[in-house]
Amino acid sequence: MNLFDLSDQVAVVTGATKGIGRGIAERLAEHGAKVVVSSRHQQECDAVAIALNDTYGKGAQVAVGIASDLEDIDSLQRLIDATLDKWARVDTLVCNAAILPTIGPSKSTPPDFFDGLMRANVHHNFRLCHMVIPQMVERGEGRIIIIGSADGESPTPSRMAYSLSKAALAHMTRCLAVEFAPQVRVNLVQPGITRSAASEPVWKNEQVLDSITKTIPLGRIAEPDEVAAAVIFLAGSGGKSTTGACIPVDGGSARLPATTESGDQIEEIFEPDHKFN
């Protein structure tokens, strides 16, 4: 038995057109899954789906793009409805999309920003999970994989609201795993800083990158494929005995206390429209 064979699976990935999400979508397709590529812009979803079909399709359609916005609950329902219309089921849901952190201290966090972030990152992901759970339970099998963050384990001073939302997702994972076992396995992957477009200001600044990697036991930031590898394990037969787990892909950084110095350095390099004071 191939522990990582995802043939005949239908997988939905939110936030799948760049960075970690695209890496996950590519590896799911590589291992045999049919993949629904979703993000806010239909044109970007279509472009990634075409690339996946060209690379992994072998003349068949293995990917389709369906736009959705984590801030719009109705669009998430349309995403799942369209997937069921297309492929009749969702075997694996990867909740990757998130509102990325605006940098700034908790004392200055605008109430509207906090409310919107928690609504999208926590409430809407919770609702999205419940959009797929009934048909998973009915079939007797399904997998939900939530992409959290090392910030949910060891928060940095400048990203309190984001850290809180990711910590909530970790506990939501444990609760859903207990409630819907044995039919549905629910797990969370916790990346640390990962080389992607969202973190580009960090890893392209040599001074900041050097300071951050000194705080990571493995001495480097993660790559999108390394996060995707954890997802492939959880989606495949190799993960059949894993549920309610929070799997770190952070070089060991969440096991150490966050430093104010590294948080301050990250805060300094973001543009003014990405922070509040």
Unreliably modeled segments: none
The CATH topology is Rossmann fold
The CATH architecture can be given as 3-Layer(aba) Sandwich
Strand order of the largest sheet: 3-2-1-4-5-6-7
User: What is the tally of beta strands?
Assistant: 7
What's the CATH C level?
Answer: Alpha Beta
* CATH homologous superfamily designation: NAD(P)-binding Rossmann-like Domain
What is the percentage of strand-forming residues? Answer: 5-15%
How would a crystallographer describe the biggest sheet?
Answer: 7 strands, parallel
Protein topology:
Blueprint: E1 10-14, H1 19-30, E2 34-38, H2 42-56, E3 63-65, H3 73-87, E4 92-95, H4 111-139, E5 142-147, H5 160-180, E6 184-191, H6 200-203, H7 206-213, H8 224-235, E7 246-249, H9 260-269
Parallel strand pairs: 1-2, 1-4, 2-3, 4-5, 5-6, 6-7
